[in-house]
Amino acid sequence: ACGGGESGTEDSDTDTGTETTDASEQVAQQRCATCHGGNLQGMGNTPALNDIGAHYSEEEILDIIVNGQGKMPGGLVKGEEAEALAAWLAEKK
Predict the structure, then answer these.
(1) Is 46 helix (H, G, I), strand (E, B) or coil?
(2) 59 pLDDT more than 90
(3) Cβ of 89: how many Cβ atoms within 10 Å?
(4) Long-range contacts at 25-28 (CB < 8 A, ≥ 24 apart)
């Protein structure tokens, strides 16, 4: 039910990465902000994600998204959406 079914193929003249960035930011707000805060600053016992790229590589972030870590369950974001989110988060330093 989460995720809305956006495919990222709407009205794009060129693939500049802006659409992917916007989609990844939207996914982060929908799936991550509840636990990690609206600015991804971390809340209580959840880590901040606003600088996660300084601590983990894109591959490590993807592994955490897919498989979970600590109290975070895996599989909250899947497939290409998870890959795009990991790439977006890896840029947060």
Answers:
(1) strand
(2) yes
(3) 23
(4) 25/88, 27/3, 27/77, 27/81, 27/84, 27/85, 28/85, 28/88, 28/89
